[in-house]
Amino acid sequence: MVSSNEYGSHTWDLLLTVDHQHEGVDKEFPLQVTGDLHVGGLMLKLVEKIKIAQDWSDYAFWWEQKKCWLLKTHWTLDKCGVQADAKLIFTTQHKMLRLRLPNMKTVRLKVSFSSMVFKAVSDICKMLNIRRPEELSLLKQSEGTLKKKKKKDKNSKEPATEDILNLCNSPVSSGLPANSGLYSKTMTPIYDPVSGSPASSTMTWFSDGSTAEQSCSILALSQSPCSPEMLAEMYQPRTLADKAKLNAGWLDSSRSLMEQDVQEEDQLLLRFKYYTFFDLNPKYDAVRINQIYEQARWAILLEEIDCTEEEMLIFAALQAYHVSKLSLSSETQDSTCESEVDEVEAALSNLEVTLEGGNKSNILEDITDIPKLADNLKLVRPKKLALKAIKTYWFVFRDTSISYFKNKESAQGEPIDKLNLKGCEVVPDVNVAAKKFGIKLLIPVADGMNEVYLRCDNEDQYARWMAACVLASKGRTMADSSYQPEVQKILSFLQMKNWTMCSQAASEPENVDMKPECFVSPRYTKKFKSKQLTARILEAHQNVSQMSLVEAKLRFIQAWQSLPEFGLSYYVVRFKGSKKDDVLGVSYNRLIRIDMATGDPITTWRFSNMKQWNVNWEIRQVAIEFDQNVSIAFTCLSADCKIIHEYIGGYIFLSTRSKDHNETLDEELFHKLTGGQE
């Protein structure tokens, strides 16, 4: 018989597991609880029963079956849905994690496994002294990118122990708030803007003593080039489908690490996910600039992004003789001697530049008068049977469109054709050595893309027309303040390509201790002999030999940004109504549908024309509506559709940033744009 008191009782047994390191102490504790007991009360009862004197403040309950944290301590067990069969683990929220940085260096640090990944990445970046953490995220290396390594490893000897930088004692890693002084707009420079080395007088701001100085110095310096053998063992994508595998493992920014099956001491990749590098400043961003440079370098070496032979040699020259050698020489220097910054003088100098501002002339003229370009250019229209029709016309570029006429005299009449460049793809087709300056335009039409080639006569003409085309594709005119800087950027890149062989460079390869195979992708190693590569890299180096270390890295990043494929993240998708798979390229301002077999763009959709997007979580389908009643829908085959959804929302979030705003992030807006409701 059951007594009436027992029958009416609401108490029930709950078995709790405690994740502690004390030997000889039980890890499982049964407690009698009621449904109206709140989570905080359950913690208190458990700690009293454990009877171990220690700091339990970092502990919380992890619900194993539902893969979620019980962080709202004021909620009752009934409200949480906890019943007698629930497996709750009382464990630490901060755990050790290994992160492989873009420079292939591994750091070990303590990270919050209970915070959303967006917040965890923000804390990690404060630890590593990287501003603008919203540009980065965490990536799980997909199995497809590890297969090549595993096959190689079967026959290889045990690899040497990896050199891991241990940052587990830094303030943020210990669960303490980071020093906000790092992100203050009025702060004095942390890094020497020329050498990129830390200014020792400010190192104490973000941690104590020499450990922090040494750690940040390592992260701000380029790594020595890897061997050709090591490069050959790494995963190199051969097709667009292979490139899609690289982007399959991005973690969900709106969920915690534990919710995504990340365990303590696991290794993840910390990478720049969004290719919009905002407000790069050598005074504060030595680590950030170096890590962006390293991500670009590896993308080029592993052929994750395509470039021409001419461009590959420029990248090799910037790596080989500039970044690598200057980094090695700066490592041997005493940073306290070279990088001591007079803080007052630096602050005054910075203030003076800020107050003076830029060139104020012609501001009213820019507002009232939209410039135009008019010139003789060659028009190349691809014909069937691989023949091309090349003819010279008089071209006029006004607003965001190009009109062309039979000659200059007929420019007052009706044009032969008018090309609207808004939303088009602009691809450079340049070979400086062969004096070829071409612009390939892929203009959206009803049934796909209309292909048009323009040929310019010289570098100056090409730079002006190319810059105008790039701006017009984004819906901007030449009156925009970014037009002249774009022209200068294109000219400087062409100048780097424009080298001539000199006698000194020709004779130098014999005397130079250099492994050119370390600086170019394997494809070019097979194409040229070692001496040929060395000579050609030395030729290219003539134009970059006068740069400082930071300038060389920034120039490398700019050259990377100039490549046609820059900033595109690929995914294999199936469009609604289609019977075959396509590749979707996601960029900072557009989506591109690409033919998987040929690699040719089929259609481009600009974010600026997007009205709304949503996800049908049941069938995992992304649907997007654009202006002019254009709508698309697709399912993602190479990754979870949440990743593409987050990419679109993330890029829109980043477009709202402004230098005038405080540097604190609007986390709520980010999650509103990227979170979704599953």
UniProtKB/TrEMBL annotation:
Q: Name one GO molecular function term.
A: integrin binding
Single Gene Ontology BP annotation:
cell-matrix adhesion
User: What UniProt keywords are attached to this protein's entry?
Assistant: Cell adhesion
Looking up Pfam families in the UniProt record yields: FERM_M, Kindlin_2_N
Q: Which InterPro entries match?
A: Band_41_domain, FERM_2, FERM_central, Kindlin/fermitin, Kindlin_2_N, PH-like_dom_sf, PH_domain, PH_Kindlin/fermitin
Q: Which GO terms describe its cellular component?
A: focal adhesion
Q: Which SMART domains match?
A: B41, PH
- Chain ranges of the PH domain: 378-474
Q: Which domain of life is it from?
A: Eukaryota
Which family does the entry's similarity section mention? Belongs to the kindlin family.
Q: What is this protein called?
A: FERM1 protein
**Which taxonomic lineage is given here?**
Eukaryota, Metazoa, Chordata, Craniata, Vertebrata
